[in-house]
Amino acid sequence: MTSTKWDPITLEVFRNLFYSVAEEMGVTLCRTSFSPNIKERRDYSCAIFDARGRMVAQGEHMPVHLGSMPKSVEAAIDAVTLEPGDVVMVNDPFRGGTHLPDITLVEAVFLDDATEPAFYVANRAHHSDVGGMTPGSMPLATSIYQEGIRIPPVRLVRRGVVVRDILDLVLANVRTPVEREGDITAQIASNRTGARRLLGLVERYGVQVVSEYMGHLQDYAERMTREAIRRIPDGEYRFEDAMDDDGQGHGPLPLVVTITVEDDEARIDFTGTCPQAAGSVNANYAITLSATMYCFRVIVPFAIPSNWGTIQPLDVVAPEGTLVNACAPAAMAGGNVETSQRIVDVVLGALSQALPDQIPAASYGTMSNLSIGGLDPRTGAEFAYYETTAGGMGARPYADGLDATHCHMTNSLNTPIEALEHAYPYRVNRYAIRRGSGGAGRFRGGDGIERELELLGESRVTILGDRRVTRPYGLSGGEPGAVGSNSIEYPDGSEEALSGKVSMDVPAGSIIKIHTPGGGGHGRA
Amino acid sequence: MALSNGSCMKATPRDSYVIVGVDTGGTFTDFVVLEGDRVRIHKTASTPDDPSRAVLTGLVELLGEPALAEAKVIHGSTVATNALLERKGARVALVTTAGFEDVIEIGRQARHDIYDLAVTKPDPLVPRELRFGVRERLDERGRVLTPLDPSAEGDTLAALEAAIASGVESVAICLLHSYANPEHERVVVDMLQSVAGAEGSFITASCDVLPEFREYERTSTTAVNAYVGPVMSRYLGALGERLDPGRVRIMASNGGAVSLAAASTGAVQTILSGPAGGAVGGFEIGRRAGTEQVITFDMGGTSTDVSLCAGGLTRTSEAEIGGLPIRVPVIDIHTVGAGGGSIASRDPGGSLRVGPESAGAHPGPICYGHGGSAVTVTDANLYLGRLSPEHFLGGTSQLDTTGVETAITTLAAELGLTAIELAEGVVRVANATMERAIRVISLERGHDPRDFSLVCFGGAGGLHAVDLSRSLGIPRVIVPEGAGTLSALGMLMAEPIRDFSRTLMLRTDGLDPQQLENAFESLEALGRAELIAEEFPEASLRFERVADLRYVGQGYEIGVPVSPEDTGLSAEMRNTVTGFADRLSSAFHEAHEHRYGYADERRATEIVTIRVRVIAAMQKPRIEPRPLGEPDAGAATIGPHTFVHRGESHAGELIDRDALRPGHAFQGPAVVVEYSTTTLVPPGTSCRVDEWGNLILEPA
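C-alpha cells for the assembled complex are given below, as produced in the milestone run.
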C-alpha cells in the first residue's frame, strides 16, 4: 500500500477526474469507429495506468476486459521500450491478449523531456474480422493459427508516426482492411485523447499529486474489495457447472471452482476444471482473472474504480493447460465470450452458498456469437459481420430476472435492424422475446430472444453458442432456464436443427434462427 | 402565497400587449412579465395536482381577470415530463410490423449499470397485450417487399377496437423502415378510421414524429408522444379555455416556442420544456453581457443542469428521459445528481461521498429544521459561513445552525477530519461532480472551457460558481439579475421554432444535389405550412439546413450546415456536383478533426439524415441597458461577514443584491444575498455590476 498522506476529499475528486478521462477516451473510440461491434455495440474498453503499468481507472465499458487490459499493458511494457509518441499493438492471447479479434493499443505518456513514462493509456476494441478460417474471426478452430492474424506486442506508431509496414502487414491479413484501418485509427485517437487529458491534470495538480492519488485510488479500491470480502462468512465454497462441448465433438466440459474465504481475502481455485479443449473455447489466465474480478466487483455495494487494487485480495489459481488457463497453440476465439460466462456461473454459484440473499441464479450464459461473411450481392464487396445476442437474466433472490438483456461479462448493444439491413445483405424476419424460456420460481428467470435472419446472398455462417445442452441453473429450488437452439430454414422451406457450434456455407435465401436461453429461476414457485 | 418583486429591469415600450413567461417549478411557478417598458417578476406557489391552477392564479394576480384573454403567454410546462417520469400517461396501443412487437421491450439489450446485480429496466410504455403486428415489410430503401393489405388485417382491427373499448385512448404506429417510405404507416392511420371508437383517439405515426432510422429509438420516441400526448392535450385544453389559445405558446425542448396545437399533437417535443427555458435564458444573458460563448449552470436542490452555447444553443438528438430514448432535437442539457440537498457520507473505503442521494425538499437539509439528519451541501455551505441565516430565502425561515454543527462534527470525526475540512470537502466533492458534467459538454465535444463564460442560476449555483470556474479555467462568471427566475425569462425570449428531419442514407460521392435539394425543400414546405397556419407571415420565416454526415461505415454523425445556395441552383449546380459534395465533405472532415482530433480525407462520406429548422422571426423583447454609476458599493453593504474558504477564515462583507446598482464594483471576500440565491465572492475575485444588472465575477 502507498504510505503517503491522502485525504478523503481529494481522493473523491481524483476518482471523478480519472474516470472522466477513461470515459472520454471511450467517447472518441465509439463515435469514430467503423466496426458495428465497436460503434453500435460498444464492445471496447478504455483505461489509464500508473507509471508501473498498474490500472488506475477503467471506463464502465466491458466487464470482460477488467482483468485482461492490465495484462496487455504488462506485455507491452515487457516487450517494448516505449518512447514518447510510441503506440504498441497486441492481440496475441499468449502475449497479453484475450482472443484475436480484441486488438489492444497501449501508449506511454511522457512529461516534457522525461525518459521514463509517467502513465500509460490503453484501449481495446473487438474488430469484426482479423482473418482466419471464417469471416468474423470467431471460427470453430482447433488451433490459434486458424483463428486469424496473431500480433505480439509490436510498435504500431513510432515517435508519432504510424509504422506503415506493420499496419500493411496486418491489413493484408484481414477480410475488410478499410474498416480495420478506420477502427485502428479511432483507437489511436482515443489514446491520444487520454494522454492529452492526463497531461492536463498534471499541469493543474503537478505530477506528484496526480501520481500519488493514482496509488491512493488503488489502495482505496483494495480496501473496498476487502471490506466486501470480510462480509462473506469464512469458509470453503465449491461449485461445478459445464460447457456443452468444444465444437469438435467433445463435451460436456466441466468447470470446477473452490472458493476459500478467510477474513478479507479469498482464494479462487479452479483445480478440477477439465483440460484445455481441442476446440475454440479455451480461456487464458487473463480472461479467468477478469471473470473472477467481475464476480467480486458486483458484491461491493458501492461504485468503486476498477483497478489494480481490486485484484489484490484475490488469489486466483488456474492450473496451466486447463480450459481456464490454456497454453499455446490452443484455439481461443470462444474463451473470452463463452467460457468467461461459465466462469462467472461457477464463481457466483459458489458465492451463492455464502451470500444467498445477494447472488442471482444463472443467466443465459452464452453470447450466441454469430459470424457471417461473403460477398454482398448489392455491391459485390466482401463483408464480415459479427454479433452476439442476449438472453434471459437469472432471477435474483428478491426480483425476477430481466428479459432479453446482456448479463455479466458483456454489455453490448444490439445492432438496430434498420442499420443492419443498410450495412449487410440481410433481412431480419423476426426479433422477439422468447416467452416462457426463463426458469420458473418464486422469482422467474428472464426470457431469452428469438432472432431470425434471412441471408440475401450465399454466405458462410459460423455460430459459436453454448447452453444448448446444459441449462442455466436455478437457485433455492428455482427451475433452470430453457436451453437455447439454432436452426436453419432453407429456401425450399425445409428446416434443420443446428448444433450450438457450427460453421457452414449456406445458399442465398436461407433463414438462420437463433433462440437464446432463459435465465434460471430463484426459490420454489 | 404570492411574492412580487418590483421593477428591476427596464424595457423599451413597443408592444401594446403584455408578454408573460411562465415556468412551472416544483415549488414555485415563476412569472416574468414584460409590460410596456416594465419587467416584473412574480412567483406563486405551484399546484402539482393541476399545474394550470397556479398558472391562472398567478396570471390573474399579475394582470387581473379582464386582461387574461389579452395576455400573450409563453409557458414552460412540466406536464409531459411528469406524466412520463411518474408514469401517469395514457393507455397506449402500438401498431408495428408483425414479428417485431417486442422491439419496444427489448430495447438495445444493454443494462444501464454493469456492476449492479439489482439492475432494473423501465417497463415498456405499451404493455405486451396492446402491441399489434400488421403483415407488411419495406426494405432499407423504402421499397415494398410485402404490401400492407388492410382487408387482411381484420383481426388487428378487431383487437384495436376491443382495446379502445377497454380504455386505450392513444395509438402509436411504428413500422420498420418507415423513415424511407411513410406509405404503410399512412395506411394504418386510414385503417384506424374504420375502428369504432377510434375517432376520439390520439394517433401518433412515427413518420410524423421522427422519420429517422434505428427502430427502437424511433418506436420509443413515438410511444412517448402517444403516452404523454393525451395528458398534455387535456392540460392545454384547460388553459386554452381561460386564455386565448392563439396567444399562448408552449416552450419546446429545442429552445423554441410552439403553438398549443403543436404542443398537443407533438407533446414529446415539450419533454424538456423547463430546462430549455433556462438554457435559452442563460444564452440571452451571455449575449447581453457581450459573449456568445456560454456555459449555463443551473444548480438546484437535487440536481444540476449544464449546457453549452458556442454562438448558439447546442442541440442533441440523443436525449434519454426516465431511461427511454427520445430522439427529437432537444437542447443538449447534461444533468448530474449533485445539488444543494445532496447528502454527504463516508463509504467503507474511507472516501467522502456526496450524492446522488438527496434530502430533497422533505426533509431537506438539516438547517431547514424539517427533520433532516444527513449532512447536505447546503448545510456545509452554512457551516462555512457562506449563507447568511438572516437573509436565506428572505429571512423567512429560521436556520438550524446547531443541528448542522453537531452533524458535521460527527461525520468529520468518522473521516478523521476537522469540521471545517469536512465542510469544505463536501463542497469540493460536489464541485468535482459538477466539473465532470461540464467536462462532458465541453472537452468531450471539442470545446475548451477557457473560452467560455459561466452563467449561473438556480438556487444553489452562486455559492459554487467561482470555485468551479477556477478548476476548469473558465475566466468569467455571470450571475444574472433574477437568477431564480431565469427560465421564465428565457421563455420570453423563445422564438417559434420547428424542427424537421429525415434519414436519407446518401453517399456524397456521386451525390445528386437536386435530389438533396428536393429533400430539403419538402421538409421546408412542411415547416412553412405549419407556421403559416399559425399566422406567421411567410416573410418572417427563416430556414436552417443541416446534413448529418459520417464516414461511410461509422455509427455516429456530425451535423454540417448546408446553405441553400449549395443545393438550390439547378442547372448551373448540376455542373458542379463534385464541388458541392467536396465542400460538404471538407466541412465534415474539419468538424471531425475538431471534435476527435483527426480526419481522413481519403475516406468516403455519407449523408445520413437531413434536418431543417424553421424559425419565425420575432421581435425579441429588447431590454435596454441602464447607465453605469459610480463603483462605490457602500450603499449595498449590509455589514461585515466572515466565511471560510480554502481552509482560512476571511473577514468580508455581506452585500444586498437588491441595493446593488449598475457600475458598482467590489472585491472578495464578500457574500451577496438576494431572495432566491446567494453568491460567494471568494478572496482574489472581483465583482462588478454591469449595465444589465448582472454580477460579473472575475479573478482580481
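The CA atoms of residues 283 and 339 of chain A lie 6 Å apart. The two ends of chain A are 48 Å apart (CA to CA). Further analysis is deferred to the final report.
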